[in-house]
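Possible regression after last week's pipeline update?

I re-ran a chain I had predicted before the update to compare outputs. Posting the input and the new output here so someone can diff against the archived version. Not blocking, just want to make sure nothing changed silently.
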Amino acid sequence: MSLLRTRALPLIAAALALGAASCSGELDLGEVPPIDFQRITLTEGSANRYLVCTEDLCQRTQAHRQSPVFEVPANRLRYEWEQVVAKAPRTTIFAEDPALNQVDYVQRSTVVGFPDVITVRFVALGPNRSTFAILSRSTYGRSDFGINRARIDDWLNQVAAAMPPAP
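New output (post-update):
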């Protein structure tokens, strides 16, 4: 009983508190600083993040995946991205910086409502050519069990499927 009381009961209480907070919409994001892709660095302990970026934009770190380039204007790329995100469950816009053409989204987990933050910057490479930088990260925990990568890879595949074929 002593082990149960000292270890299990506090964990159960914490889980119940988190569940109650998510049901009432109280599970807070905390402070979410704006992302500057030109200054971002990923540390070895950041297993709960997934970065898609070009070498030109993310010069201080190596992305998990290189950003795809699309033969469409940046506003078309953004439109197709927004169509994909609009279908994603429990996902809302959290913040937006029109000057940078950058948007922060929040997607909450199904059961507990843990918030993940997805930041996207749309980048024009010419009048009919564009790409984006994406950082998806969990706000709680040290590992996300591959959720951020799976989400972004899925969304990228959906965007690519909506684009016209390359000439």
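Follow-up from reviewer: compared with the archived run. The chain is about 30% helix and 25% strand. Marking as no regression found.
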